[in-house]
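Consider this pair:
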Amino acid sequence: MAVVIMGVCGSGKSTIGNLLAKALDCSFLDADDFHPESNKDKMKRGIALSDKDRIPWLEILRNALREHLLSENIVVLGCSALQKSYREILRSADPDYTQGISFDSVVKFVLLDARAEVIAARLEKRAAEGNHFMPQSLLQSQLDSLQLDPSEGILKVDATQTPNELVNSIQALIFGQKLDIQDLMYWK
């Protein structure tokens, strides 16, 4: 199984994804680590990425997910995955997934959802600390790009919860309960 923690910049994907991976005793992949320098440079300058920039990056992420899935390992990915077509690329990491038939896949998506003001405040703080290449000026373009189709079955959690509450909420949504390490052996 692959769990994609998705949302706009500043929603907490890296923090929550990392904590969830620790709770599940599995690997965490941060999509930001897979961006080529040219993408990071564009974003630093406040230029939104185009599909020409994103598609090769998403294909690399898909291949990384597939590698984990073929090894029958759980993996958590923190990735914006804002548009349905981007999620389709990631869903296709599942070798048994057939696009266009249904959204049934071992690649599950969890949206970290919060009001724009909350996210903007987080981005301001992060910028002041010099902790990220993504400027607050790109937040609105990300919010505008976010596409949610109820038929996809994207799980949604309130990103204003504490990190531990978020991890517990995600575990409950995906697995129906908070899991102990012993329970995870069943899922691997």
The radius of gyration is 16 Å. Confidence is low (pLDDT under 50) at residues 178-188.
